[in-house]
Specification:
With about 475 residues, the protein is of the alpha/beta class. It contains 19 helices and 9 strands. The longest helix has about 30 residues, at about 30-60.
């Protein structure tokens, strides 16, 4: 083996000796002493594992099998690359271990060039990018997306022996976000799940994030001007329900979205639903609040999916409808017991599917001299309830499907509000979208699917 392998082997032998000595001489007689021993033995164990990992990497890159796979990979690339010879590449591992790998560098130009058109195909086959292994990149991206700030993420990673700077953490996270975007644009991003014969619920909603957007000119100190504007990132959720109408445990929900346009969101949703073969589902429920950007696009989505009319139900969130009824009651000075009694009657009518009676009661209450707001609220029930039949809550209750959009509202809170929504934080658009999308996959319980697809690079994605 080469000198690098021998160096790692010698360090591993020394760490093993230290661990034996520590375990034979320690006396666990107090909580503080136990904690100190636990920390020391854990640090040594982590470093030993990284040294063994580095030795395995050297063996892999020197093997004839990996060289054969490397040649096949380079040959399958859409553009011809030329070998520039062997170069050293430092790979960082937990426990502050660094291993130097000798791998071939390939470039578009025969002379090498200085552009960003080259790659280390061997490292790509092993899932290594930006000096970090797949597992380390996953840990870094997960910490960046889930914890409250990058400083918290760095502190938590250091406990696990991963010592990085803010810039290094950002580079890894952005790299994963860029790969996720590339998979999306090429329509090869997939989710696992069987929807055949099941009842599927699809819902969407928007959140809030403050973006740092460029303005013309510079400040007196020569800094670039920017405006902090509130924008609306949008999410969707796809999930299955069990026999009791609850979210099924055997089908992790699909949550995704971003800061793109409404049409881009629905294009992404369409790709997911087509990948799941939604036409095989027994029933599909689209449920959301009354946002016009949603309901204008649902009919086209249903048509593109090829769903039958008897498969599909559209539903306005029940609690949003009740909120409008409360506003109507307050506008006519119904308070206290009178308001509660009136709302209880309308609630029972809605649940029984008597939307016509509810509309008549609203018209009777507000009379002929309606304000602009009262007219809007009345039209809300006429349009969604009578014209489009989006308030048939009795049908949903009979079929054991939700009558509200609480799942997507919860997703917006967990994915967006608890991480990127803040008065004091201004995000760049691409950075915010990266965090939102990675966090959405993780919160949905599909982290391994995400990391598998963003780590395993195919020749089509390499250049």
């Amino acid at each position: 083996m080469n000198a690098e392998y021998q160096r790692l082997e010698a360090e591993a032998s020394e760490i093993e000796r230290q661990m034996r000595g520590l375990s034979t001489t320690v006396e666990l007689s107090s909580a503080s002493g136990h904690a100190k021993f636990e920390r020391q033995i854990s640090d040594l164990g982590r470093k030993l594992a990284s040294l063994r990992h580095g030795m395995a990497l050297i063996q892999a890159t020197d093997s004839s099998e990996m060289r054969r796979r490397e040649r096949e990979f380079v040959k399958a690339l859409p553009k011809k690359l030329h070998s520039q010879g062997i170069r050293k590449k430092a790979i960082h591992l937990p426990g502050q271990v660094t291993v130097s790998l000798s791998v071939t560098y390939y470039h578009r130009c025969q002379s090498g060039g200085n552009g960003r058109r080259g790659l280390f195909s061997m490292l790509m086959l092993l899932g290594i990018a930006g000096h970090y292994t797949p597992h380390m990149r996953q840990r870094m991206a997960k910490a960046a997306a889930l914890l409250g700030s990058f400083d918290e993420a760095i502190e938590m990673l250091a406990v696990d022996g991963i010592h990085v700077s803010v810039n290094q953490l950002w580079d890894v996270t952005k790299g994963m976000g860029q790969m996720l975007q590339q998979l999306t644009s090429q329509r090869v991003l997939t989710v696992a799940g069987n929807v055949s014969g099941r009842r599927i619920v699809v819902s969407m909603d928007g959140g809030r994030v403050r973006l740092r957007e460029r303005r013309r000119g510079k400040t007196k100190k020569g800094r670039k001007r920017f405006a902090a504007q509130w924008r609306e990132p949008r999410l969707f959720i796809i999930y299955a329900v069990d026999d009791e109408g609850r979210m099924a445990d055997d089908f992790p929900p699909v949550i995704d979205g971003g800061l793109g346009s409404c049409d881009q969101l629905f294009a992404l949703l369409l790709a997911y639903l087509q990948g799941l073969h939604l036409t095989t589902a027994a029933r599909v429920l689209f449920v959301a609040d009354g946002a016009a950007w949603i309901w204008r696009r649902i009919p086209k989505l249903v048509k593109s999916l090829g769903l039958q009319d008897e498969q599909v139900q559209q539903l306005i969130d029940f609690w949003h409808a009740m909120e409008y009824l409360g506003k109507i009651a307050e506008s006519k000075s119904l308070i206290g017991a009178r308001k509660a009694h009136w709302l209880t009657i309308q609630k029972k009518r809605l649940l029984r599917g008597e939307i016509g009676s509810v509309v008549e009661e609203i018209q009777t209450l507000i009379g002929s001299r309606k304000t602009k707001e009262q007219t809007t609220w009345l039209n809300y029930f006429i349009t969604h309830g009578i014209k489009h039949r989006r308030m048939d809550y009795s049908r949903s209750r009979c079929s054991k499907t939700p009558i509200g959009s609480g799942a997507i509202e919860s997703a917006v809170r967990r994915v967006i509000n608890l991480r990127v929504k803040s008065n004091a934080v201004y995000w760049l658009r691409d950075n915010a979208e990266t965090i939102i999308r990675i966090r959405a996959w993780i919160k949905a319980g599909r982290a391994e699917e995400l990391f598998q697809q963003t780590t395993c690079i195919t020749p089509e994605l390499a250049i």
